[in-house]
Amino acid sequence: MDTRAANAQQQVLLRSQGYSVDGRTVIVVQLNDGTGQCDAYAWGSRTMTAAHVYIEAHFGELKDGDVVDVEFILGESAAPKVSEVQPV
Question: Measured between alpha carbons, how far is 8 from 10 in angstroms, rounded to an integer?
Fold first, then answer.
C-alpha cells in the first residue's frame, strides 16, 4: 500500500497515526493471516524484514504478480523464483 495522501482529510488521518503523507510509508500485509507492518524491522522475521526492505526500495518498479524472492535478494540462490500463477 502506498500512503500518498490524495486530499487534506487523508493527510490528517495518516499524520494522526504517525504515517508519512508523501508515499514514503509502505505497508506490507500478509494475505494468509492479515498481519501487516509499516516498519520493516518490526516483523521479527529475517524473511519478512528482507522482503519489506526490498519492497520499500523497489515499490515503483514492482508489478502485480511479481515474486519477492528473499533467497535471491540475499544472494542465496542463482536465479529468482517465478510465480505459480500465470498472468491472465
Answer: 5
Q: Which residues of the chain, if any, have pLDDT below 50?
A: none
What is the value of pTM for the model shown? 0.77
Among 76, 80, 53, smallest CA distance to 66 is for 80
Set of cell numbers at residue 2: 502506498
Parent domain of 9: 2-62
* Euclidean distance between CA atoms 41 and 52, whole angstroms: 8
Give dist(CA 13, CA 32) in Å, integer: 27
What's the structural domain count of the chain? Answer: 1
